[in-house]
């Protein structure tokens, strides 16, 4: 058995903001991928993945008992495959903000859900929201709380525009320019990040009126503007808004930025060579960079590993 491939994702804009109804834009990233397989090699990592899937299967059984109207799985097949050594063979780094658990959730839904909504049918807004709700419940096993967007992106392999929590649609994004100087890139922090504690910090901060005001008046405002500029291909306006967003994050989301990157983050804002933002919940993993001149950014960040994910 070898299941279909499911890809990683990158949330270009909207981390934390989408919890508070900002816009968001998520794109598939085909460099990393994963598939369900039956274990023939019996390595430590396949055993670990199999044990994780065993716990996940138990969680899904409970979920089905609690919410039978929402979701139904072929649990017998899932359990039999887990017994036979089912594991998720994935190149997606875990704790890096590129959707490792999302791809796994998409793969399990695709293989074992009864009456599943398929990618081939007419995906109305209702169907998208239904999928997102199912994926949210499934992925909560990994993060404690999940929007369901990562698995949705992985499952559909389409860019997704989040207008608000109950208004999402597949998005057409401007096509990439093969030799464009502008780029979106991933910057490797060298450490993994844990989603749940970062979200916890954000939720604690949201209890303070000043922080709530900043999120609404600055963070969400610039995030929404970035999404609109990106979709319209308005590069000049986009970089003005990304610079503002990068400043807001540096000033107000310091715990989410690994401490050794605070200076590098500020250097980008001061020199305009690049602007950094969070990729996912932060705390480690990747950071997302935007630059109008990738060669200039590479020089400024010559000691770090960059991966270009989009050129314009």
TrEMBL record:
It comes from the Bacteria. Residues 84-150 form the GHMP kinase N-terminal domain. Pfam families: GHMP_kinases_N. Keywords: ATP-binding, Kinase, Nucleotide-binding, Transferase. Coiled coil: none annotated. One of its GO terms (molecular function) is ATP binding. InterPro entries: GHMP_kinase_C_sf, GHMP_kinase_N_dom, Ribosomal_Su5_D2-typ_SF, Ribsml_uS5_D2-typ_fold_subgr. This is Mevalonate kinase. It comes from Aequorivita ciconiae.
């Amino acid at each position: 058995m070898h299941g279909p491939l499911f890809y990683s994702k990158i949330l270009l804009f909207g981390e934390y903001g989408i919890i508070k109804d900002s816009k968001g834009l998520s794109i598939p990233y085909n460099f990393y991928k994963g598939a369900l397989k039956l274990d023939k090699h019996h390595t430590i990592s396949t055993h670990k993945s199999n044990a994780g899937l065993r716990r996940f299967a138990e969680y899904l059984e409970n979920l089905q008992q609690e919410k039978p109207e929402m979701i139904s799985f072929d649990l017998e097949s899932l359990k039999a495959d887990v017994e036979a050594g089912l594991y998720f063979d994935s190149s997606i780094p875990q704790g890096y903000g590129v959707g490792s658990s999302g791809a796994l959730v998409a793969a399990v839904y695709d293989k074992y859900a009864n009456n599943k909504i398929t990618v081939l049918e007419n995906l109305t807004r209702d169907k998208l929201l239904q999928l997102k709700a199912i994926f949210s419940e499934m992925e909560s096993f990994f993060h404690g709380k999940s929007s369901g967007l990562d698995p949705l992106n992985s499952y559909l392999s389409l860019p997704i525009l989040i207008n608000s929590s109950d208004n999402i649609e597949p998005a057409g994004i401007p096509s990439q320019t093969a030799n464009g100087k502008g780029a979106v890139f991933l910057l490797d922090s060298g450490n993994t990040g844990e989603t749940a504690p970062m979200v916890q910090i954000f939720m604690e901060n949201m209890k303070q009126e000043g922080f709530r005001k900043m999120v609404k008046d600055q963070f969400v405002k610039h995030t929404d503007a970035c999404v609109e500029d990106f979709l319209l291909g308005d590069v000049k306006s986009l970089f003005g808004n990304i610079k503002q967003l990068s400043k807001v994050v540096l000033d107000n989301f310091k715990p989410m930025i690994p401490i050794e990157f605070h200076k590098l983050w500020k250097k980008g804002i001061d020199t305009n060579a690049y602007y950094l933002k969070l990729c996912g919940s932060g705390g480690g993993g990747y950071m997302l960079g935007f630059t109008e001149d990738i060669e200039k950014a590479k020089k400024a960040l010559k000691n770090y590993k960059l991966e270009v994910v989009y050129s314009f």
